[in-house]
Write a sequence for this structure.
């Protein structure tokens, strides 16, 4: 069976490349706002690790990118295009991911749709549905792979073109949690736990069951690791930003 890994140079897809034993990788430059940083990270990782990455600009979805960096149906578009190249498409989702187009159920539906409409079997799957980001980083380090290469990845939803991690977005928060829980002190422009939204939104939301238990446990473990004592909730939690 031919395989391809949808690669974003992020903290999930880089360990996935190792986990899947270095399959061919494919990056779609969708014209989205942090693609410059992602492409720089790809260049750095290719130089360091010899990843075979095809970069494609066949689809521009910039018009549909929302303020929170979400592109509706992104993974459906990517799976359809990747299906021209391989039978099995690896797209990294992690334990608890439940956005509309990224969940085990969504991937089964997308696989079925492409299989039915293309007339040949296509599988869209993630190697990490049973692992949290913290567990993925732990697996990577457990293989004796260098922590420094993890820091070459890019996973931030910042709106400008700076190459650093802002420390004030949900992507940075998740990155920080998975790294600090593995004892890695990663650079951020500002310490993620000092982002106002951590105390105002995430602390109450993690307490009230808005997020799965494993997300809450890893969140509070990370705060504990830096000695941050969470304040009592100042406002009721809202689900305004969903589970990013
Ligand atoms: Zn960020």
């Amino acid at each position: 069976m031919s395989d391809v890994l949808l690669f974003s140079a992020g903290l999930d897809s880089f360990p996935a490349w190792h986990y899947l034993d270095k399959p061919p990788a494919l990056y779609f430059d969708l014209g989205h706002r942090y693609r410059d940083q992602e492409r720089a990270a790809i260049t750095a990782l290719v130089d360091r690790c010899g990843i075979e990455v095809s970069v494609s600009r066949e689809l521009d979805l910039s018009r549909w990118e929302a303020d929170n960096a979400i592109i509706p149906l992104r993974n459906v578009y990517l799976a359809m295009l990747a299906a021209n190249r391989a039978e099995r498409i690896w797209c990294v989702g992690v334990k608890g991911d439940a956005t509309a187009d990224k969940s085990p159920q969504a991937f089964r539906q997308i696989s079925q749709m492409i299989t039915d409409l293309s007339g040949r079997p296509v599988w869209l799957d993630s190697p990490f549905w049973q692992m949290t980001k913290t567990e993925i980083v732990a697996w990577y380090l457990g293989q004796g792979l260098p922590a420094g290469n993890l820091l070459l990845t890019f996973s931030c939803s910042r709106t400008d073109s700076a190459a650093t991690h802002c420390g004030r977005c949900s992507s940075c928060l998740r990155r920080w949690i998975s790294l600090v829980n593995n004892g890695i002190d990663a650079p951020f422009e500002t310490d993620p736990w000092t982002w106002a939204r951590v105390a105002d939104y995430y602390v109450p939301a993690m307490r009230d069951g808005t997020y799965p238990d494993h997300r809450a446990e890893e969140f509070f473990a990370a705060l504990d690791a830096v000695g941050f004592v969470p304040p009592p909730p100042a406002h009721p939690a809202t689900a305004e930003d969903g589970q990013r």
Observations:
- The mean pLDDT is 94.
- The CA atoms of residues 31 and 62 lie 5 Å apart.
- Strands lie at 3-6, 25-28, 53-56, 88-90, 123-125.
- The chain has two domains: 3-125, 158-244.
